[in-house]
Amino acid sequence: MADLGELVGTDEQEDITNKDMVGLAGYIRGKYRESEDGRLSDEQRWLKAYKNYRGTSEDSEDYRKSERSKVTVKITKVKVLAAFGQLVDILFSQGKVPISVEPTPMPEGVEEFVHLKSPADSLSKSDPYGFEGDGRELAPGAMEASELELGPYADEMSEANLAAGPSKMGEPQLSPAKEAARKMEKLIHDQLLDASAVSELRKGLFEQCLLGTGIVKGPFNHTKTIHRWSSDGGSRYYDPEEKLVPRLSHVSCWDLYPDPSALSLEDAEYIIERHRMNRSQLRSLRNRPFFDVDAIEACLTMGSSYEERYFENDLYADNDPIYNEDRFEVLEYWGVLDAKMAEEIQLDLPKNTSPLDQIQVNAWVCGNEILRVVLNPFVPERLPYQVFPYEKNPYRFFGIGVPENMEDAQLLMNGHVRMAIDNLALAGNLIFEVDENMMVPGQSMDIYPGKIFRRQSGAPGTGITGIKFPSTAVENLQMYDKARQLADEETGIPSIVHGQTGVTGTGRTAAGLSMLMGSAGLGIKTVIKNIDDHLLRPLGENMFMWNMQFSEDEDATMGDLEIKPKGTTSVMMKEVRSQRLTMLLQTVSNPMLAPFVKLPTLIKELAIAQDMEPDELVNDTNEAQIFAEILRGLNGQTTGEEAAAPSEQQPNMGAPEGVPAGANPTDPTGVGGGTIGTGTTPTPGEGGFTGNVTPITGQGEGGV
Questions:
Q1: pLDDT (0 to 100) of residue 318
Q2: Assigned domain for 92 exists
């Protein structure tokens, strides 16, 4: 299979002039500056959100300028973590990415299999033989078709021998299109598991809640080394295998610079990702396809090229310097490039490319050096990023997060808590008023137990007077509670979700709690919908296209399939389907309905709905028959043991002889389980009368 490097360009780039490369580097850096200026307001929003999350707001963000207390109530952090926890619980409760693959209504590529006529279509209903797997059965013990069964085919088929026992009915089969979709879905899930996709997606989800936008890059090509050992002549040696696999990675909002005129990823002409690399990371690029080794060495020789941004001091450390020595700023460009400029740097352009056309390229820039420039390797061409908002801003590329929604509520909570603390500090202490005309000049005014003040005039107790201020902390804390309720409404995340105690009103009852939790889910469902549309669906489609282009698994890459993100419905739909299949299975347990239902297929679908491998779980018909015989034998043995049990039971204590246990001898109706009923009284000497004298063997007629 061709490597990515073999698909995107050639090694014949020695004739590229430095002037051309500097021109391309200047073009990309110009786009970078435009994007940097275009997202300045977004950076301000992110900084404020991050500070509210950390509780490190500045004096300019105080509720009142007279605030002395600087305490911060980190309710923003609680809300962000609650939203993040809900998203992770919904999306990854089963430990995998909720992406499903289904065939389109008319799958292209498999329609010849879907519409292929089976051998049964060419047979008449009177055909006595049929074929293996047609569902027909011989009579038990039949080895040959009888003349009666053959009818007009008797002479023609007289020498034919049939297999002993019932014919094979065939294993439960899904349609070819559904089978191809299931294989593709399994392949994608295996690849995502191998790529630790859940871990990378969790990072993106956290920034989605915090900053309003999550970003995931991929799938992109990665050469994985599979460790293998081989044997040759009794000796073992290390024989690794290189395999091309897809990879995903999280990209921070701070490092992504989109087209400033774009409102979504689909509208963007380009995306620039900023990398902060050390010398080892930059040097490792030499081992990747189509990176210019000489350009990398030139960057290493020039030394550090990293430009510190104004927001980094607030992000990375508190009042600690950032050490950028031996750090290099590398820009990764994905986007359009004029065909004329592409010709100047001698890219291998597609045929019939006009000089006025634009082509998709991938370029890496460090300073004025072009580390790599190739055509976009993906077919069809796409930007390998998924940008998913928490709340979509219709007029901005980046979305709105939890901290921004509750920004005012957080300011109010901080302000009123600080006012309460300041007031309590004031009300808890006396303020002293001193009449200096009555006091001896020059003495200290410090007050402590046992302190002596010298007074030179005036009435006693009038020179120093203590004043006590009233407490308003109760009113301030009430306003704090109102602000917290406002935060619940603004974020759509009730406090009950993240474990607040002391719930009052509706939340005191089970029905009220259920209602609160249900209403909480409404806001989260909107967020999940954004994740479905902007993350799961494009990620699934990109994984599908990657497999169609690069995967070696031919069995799973056949068919025109449709990617369906599960998201909100991932758990609910699966549970509902599983419940419905289980109810159907219980319904068809009725012997009268069972013959009309394909039970093996039903069991197989039930296994799929419960994320089980149907081929490992469901027996074929022959295996099912064997197990049925085993179970029938076990049931027969059990039944025999249970049948013998009543004869071993002791008679009911206290019951008359001849009356079955449990019977009521005094019940004339016999309802109590006995054999006594109504009737005429027998006369002595009558046959069957138990009062007749019965002779005993060996004794005379009169013996008793």
A1: 58
A2: yes
Show the domain range for 354: 10-32+269-379
Is the pTM above the cut of 0.85?
Answer: no
Residues 6+ apart with CB under 8 A from 690: none
Answer yes or no: are the C-beta atoms of 495 and 81 closer than 8 Å: no
Do 497 and 539 fall into the same domain? no
| 188 CB-contact burial (10 Å; exposed 0-12 / middle 13-18 / buried 19+) | buried
Rounded to whole angstroms, how far apart are CA atoms 253 and 389?
A: 11
Tokens 């992110």, residue located: 46
Peptide bond into 380 cis (omega under 30): yes
Same domain, residue pair 391 and 257: yes
Structural domains of the chain, count: 4
- Between strands 369-375 and 385-389, the pairing is unpaired
- CA–CA separation, 471 vs 458, rounded Å? 32
Q: Which two three-digit tokens encode residue 357? A: 């056309």
Residue 400 in 3-state DSSP?
A: strand
Residue 217 parent element (H or E): strand 213-226
Does residue 289 sit in the same domain as residue 333?
yes
pLDDT in tens, 276-332: 999 999 999 998 889 999 999 999 998 888 888 888 877 875 556 666 668 899 999
For the chain, the 3-state helix, strand and coil shares in percent, each to the nearest 5, are 45, 15, 40
Is 328:305 a contact under the CB 8 Å cutoff?
Answer: yes
Query: In this structure, what token pair is assigned to residue 434?
Result: 């001193």
| DSSP-assigned letters across all residues of 432-484 | EEE-TTTBPTT------TT----B-SS-TT-SEEEE-PPP-HHHHHHHHHHHH
Q: How far apart are CA 593 and CA 479, in angstroms?
A: 66
The amino acid that residue 626 corresponds to is I
Residues 6+ apart with CB under 8 A from 602: 581, 584, 585, 588
